[in-house]
Amino acid sequence: MKALTKTDFHFEGQKNVYHGKVRDVYDINDDVIVMVATDRISAFDVILPKGIPFKGQVLNQIAAKFLDATTDICPNWKLATPDPMVTVGLKCEGFRVEMIIRSILTGSAWRAYKEGCRELCGVKLPEGMKENQRFPEPIITPTTKADEGHDLNISKEEIIAQGIVSAEDYAVMEDYTRRIFQRGQEMAAQRGLILVDTKYEFGKRDGKVYLIDEIHTPDSSRYFYADGYEEKFEKGEPQR
């Protein structure tokens, strides 16, 4: 029951290692990466002193399941999961944005809306919405990807104008984001859950856009229980 909070491997061909908030990422010959999902816990960009046993395994296996279940939609970085806590995959040049997609007005989006905001990352929001209300269709609200501290909201137009991502690559990322999210929602519904919002990261390799990192895990996504959602929404009660 010991938590794995630190790794220090030395693989053949290893170029460097990056210790993130949760994952340790080993670069092998600038071609392949070995990503270890540790049991570290991060909250508000701070790594907490103790880990939770099996947390890394659960995260890694959920991500692997969803990566395998979306290969018909877009290519992704995963090559193998040789251990429950490890994914080996292709090294890609990551885009400096995270694609956040939301189906329900909640969390930071709700807080901004409540304060009068009617436009989020360039997306116009309808008047008269309530907390935890579904959007007419999911909205994409990208953020810049910060090395440290908080990511910042940014619009599609700003991303393209600032040359962070080309218009062509952004269109591909946007299409993939909507389709992967729909697949994730369908899979969640089979388990009695609503995939409320999530984030995807993309990279490029040999001129092709790849889905990278984790997807649809509790670290990167918000889920509600489907049972009781409508009733709680009507009563203005917090969702499970």
Unreliable runs, pLDDT <50, ≥5 residues?
Answer: none
CATH architecture of the largest domain: 2-Layer Sandwich
Identify the CATH homologous superfamily of the largest domain: ATP-grasp fold, B domain
DSSP E strands, number: 16
**What is the helix/strand order?**
EEEEEHEEEEHEEEEHHEEEH
| CATH fold assignment of the largest domain | D-amino Acid Aminotransferase, Chain A, domain 1
Q: Compute the separation of the termini in Å.
A: 28 Å
Number of DSSP helical runs = 5
What is the residue-averaged pLDDT? Answer: 96
Tell me what the structure shows:
This protein has 240 residues and is of the alpha+beta class. The protein has 2 domains: 14-90, Phosphorylase Kinase, domain 1; 93-235, ATP-grasp fold, B domain (D-amino Acid Aminotransferase, Chain A, domain 1, 2-Layer Sandwich), CATH 3.30.470.20. It has helices spanning 55-68, 107-114, 156-161, 167-189, 229-235, and strands spanning 14-19, 23-28, 32-37, 42-43, 46-47, 78-83, 86-90, 93-94, 97-104, 119-120, 123-124, 134-140, 143-144, 193-205, 208-212, 221-225. The longest helix is centred in the C-terminal third of the chain and has 23 residues, at 167-189. It is globular, with a radius of gyration of 18 Å.
